[in-house]
Design brief:
Blueprint: E1 2-8, E2 18-22, E3 25-27, E4 31-35, E5 40-46, H1 54-63, H2 75-93, E6 103-104, E7 106-111, E8 116-121, E9 125-130, E10 133-136, H3 143-149, H4 153-158, E11 168-169, E12 180-183, H5 185-188, E13 192-196, H6 198-201, H7 206-213, H8 219-231, E14 238-244
Antiparallel strand pairs: 1-4, 1-14, 2-3, 2-5, 5-7, 6-11, 7-8, 8-12, 9-10, 9-13, 13-14
Helix pairs in contact: 1-2
Length: 246
């Protein structure tokens, strides 16, 4: 199978605050296509744009993952590992005056022969292709989703849909409380797995993503998804990862 990663900085941005991880390799503002065997660690970290230093936060967190053994780590150990990454990020941020509140989302999967675990905090997403339909396996940790879950539809319609409720960093330990680590055997059965930052999925509907993801997957396909997001109004950084087993 192969893993394709496409990442580009947003309109008028000096640097891309998104970064993606494939095993020990970090990719940002570029494209890569890699053949892999049945095991992989894949993730996206989206530096929080409202906090200075988002690009430092996303890269710092992803750089920590070379310390884990994906073949043997348990869900409880992964949860603790991400908590430790957060503590490290808070200390790291103190080195940068004015960027002490740097923050990032983090969403990824550990894909092994028979299992697939998702780790998640924030509003980056994991989808799996089931037949001809994309199923979202993560739940956005945003004010918008929080209001929807409580039936406050009118308030949700007028809130900032990109405002996250949990993240890593942010200058305070309280934001890390949303870490989720779960096994999804059904995701492991999907022929294609898609990860995206909100610069993509807030502007490209699931139906539109399905139109792209059902055909051939290559650099041109990934660029078309990013172009669609841009034409729909996205000025944010855009990152897409596709694990292709077809």
């Amino acid at each position: 199978m192969k893993v394709l990663i496409y990442s580009e900085k947003g309109y008028k941005k000096a640097i891309c605050e998104d970064a993606a991880l494939l095993n020990e390799h970090i990719i940002s503002d570029s494209f890569s296509e890699t053949q892999i065997n049945s095991r992989a660690l894949v993730a996206i970290a989206d530096g929080v744009g409202g906090n200075a230093g988002g690009e430092l936060a996303s890269r710092y967190v992803l750089s920590q993952f070379d310390k884990i053994d994906i073949e043997n780590i348990t869900a409880e150990e992964m949860h603790q590992f991400i908590e430790n990454c957060n503590i490290g990020l808070l200390e790291y941020a103190k080195q940068f005056p004015g960027k002490e509140n740097m923050a990032t989302t983090l969403t990824g999967i550990i894909l092994l022969q028979d299992t697939c675990d998702i780790f998640h905090i924030g509003n980056t997403r994991v989808y799996g292709l089931q037949g001809s339909y994309l199923k979202q396996f993560t739940k956005d940790q945003t004010t918008y989703q929080w209001l929807l879950d409580r039936g406050h539809i009118e308030e949700a319609d007028i809130c900032n849909k990109n405002e996250i409720t949990y993240c890593l960093g942010g200058g305070n330990l309280k934001y890390v409380a949303g870490i989720c680590v779960n096994e999804y055997s059904t995701l492991n059965q999907c022929k294609r797995i898609l990860l995206s930052s909100d610069g993509i999925h807030e502007y490209v509907s699931t139906d539109e993503l399905e139109d792209f993801i059902l055909g051939d997957i290559n650099k041109e396909t990934m660029q078309k998804i990013a172009d669609k997001a841009r034409s729909n109004g996205s000025d944010d950084d855009k990152t897409i990862v596709v694990i292709d087993r077809m």
